[in-house]
Task: structure prediction
Amino acid sequence: MIVYDPLWKTMKDKGFTTYTLREKHGISNSTVQRLKKNMPVSTYTLNTLCRLLDCTLGEVAAYVKAEP
Result:
């Protein structure tokens, strides 16, 4: 399962908020909600987040083995 826990730490470290993502960078509210709920997002979105935050994919998402 992909989780976005690293994203929230990276955003905090770089002074970003969900408001910043939505209002200044055009990330939709539904995409922000999907990230908060660890739901799938497109690789385009992941690429955009890495570009905006000037970080690696590992600073946005992590793989956690799901229990069967």
Notes: The longest helix spans residues 43-53. Helices lie at 5-13, 18-25, 29-36, 43-53.
